[in-house]
Design brief:
This is Glycosyltransferase family 2 protein. Pfam families: Glycos_transf_2 (PF00535). Its EC number is 2.4.1.212. There is one protein chain. The chain is an alpha/beta fold. It has 2 domains: 230 residues, Alpha-Beta Complex (Spore Coat Polysaccharide Biosynthesis Protein SpsA, Chain A), CATH 3.90.550; 67 residues, no CATH class. Helix content is 43%, strand content 16%. It is built from 13 helices and 11 strands. The strands form 2 sheets. A 7-stranded mixed β-sheet has the order 3-2-1-4-9-6-10. Strand 2, helix 2 and strand 3 form a beta-alpha-beta unit. The radius of gyration is 20 Å and the shape is globular. The protein starts with a strand and ends in a 7-residue tail after the last helix.
């Protein structure tokens, strides 16, 4: 049997936390549930302490002096304290389904597979959250990739370098990864990113580690949509949205340079990064056409929009 540490960053999630924890405690494979409390301003810490006393699997950690350091730092805190061979993540307002680790139990018998990921569902917890979400995004009952993949095909798919559209990301709640792989490749969340640190970590994992799709045609976890979700506050193609994307892809480009990855990958990352940079510098708020041209035909787009790719 595989042994899993589930890491839950906790910030102002008092209303949902108990359901999340109990959904993880259900599994025999889950040996510990690490609550990384991040100086909540509601009574989340009180609930954490109660769950610590009631559920033997629960462990509670806080940052030094009880500081607030963000979701990335809280997940890193959990990783550093994890004692199991495998690590899974769960947001405090989400929950696992009974099939959460069905694929992992089979696939991790192959030592070459370092990580497994699947699909998640969506549940509307408040009417306002539902309206905000549906006004900004397409109705998505299942967040998943489009076809099975493994190894470098996952990384290429996330960068839209595959002939068939794979999907731009998958949800962190669906990922299970070997702790040894995180440590071997020195992979942790980028704490300087207050948002999108999960996407950035997934991209780096897909490059450094051998990932494989698990269950992608049905949900293995559920994302809760409510009034205070960050995702419901996002309005695409606004300066704030573009600035957050710019920080994400600037971080990815710096990573690409420091790791000397292949020119094909580095070039694609640069083009995505530069499209967001241009959208802010030139006031091109709704830059979708530029973005698509950069991805589909970068040579023409570079000439048309007059920027240079430096092969370094």
């Amino acid at each position: 049997m595989i042994e899993i540490s589930v890491i839950i960053p906790v910030y102002n999630a008092a209303e949902f936390l108990e359901k999340a924890v109990k959904s993880a405690a259900y599994f025999d494979e889950v040996k510990e549930i690490i609550l990384a409390e991040d100086q909540s301003t509601d009574h989340s810490l009180e609930i954490c302490r109660r769950l610590l006393s009631e559920i033997p699997k629960v462990k509670l950690f806080q940052h030094p002096n009880g500081e607030n350091r963000g979701a990335g730092a809280s997940r890193n805190l959990g990783i550093d304290h994890a004692t199991s061979d495998f690590i899974a993540f769960l947001d405090a307002d989400d929950y696992y389904l009974p099939n959460r680790f069905d694929a992992e139990k089979k696939l991790f018998s192959n030592p070459a597979i370092e990580g497994v990921f699947g699909a998640i569902g969506t549940e509307y917890l408040t009417e306002k959250g539902k309206q905000e979400f549906q006004s900004k995004f397409k109705e998505v009952s299942l967040s998943t990739v489009n076809y099975p993949a493994e190894g470098k095909e996952v990384f290429r798919g996330l960068l839209s370098l595959t002939p068939e559209v794979f999907g731009t990301s998958f949800h962190l709640n669906s990922l299970t990864i070997r702790k040894l792989s995180l440590d071997r490749h020195h992979i942790r969340f980028n704490e300087s990113l207050r948002v999108h640190q999960d996407t950035e970590l997934i991209m780096r994992l897909a490059y450094h580690c051998y990932l494989k799709t698990g269950i992608i045609d049905e949900a293995i976890a559920v994302r809760g949509i409510h009034d205070d979700n960050r995702i419901t506050k996002i309005i695409k193609y606004t300066p704030q949205y573009n600035q957050r994307q710019l920080l994400l892809w600037k971080s990815m480009y710096n990573w690409a340079l420091s790791n000397r990855i292949s020119p094909e990958y580095k070039k694609r990352i640069y083009l995505i990064y530069k499209s967001f940079d241009l959208s802010l510098k030139d006031g091109l708020i709704k830059y979708g056409c530029i973005f698509l041209e950069l991805l589909k035909n970068p040579e023409i787009a570079k000439t048309k929009y007059r920027f240079t790719y430096y092969n370094r």
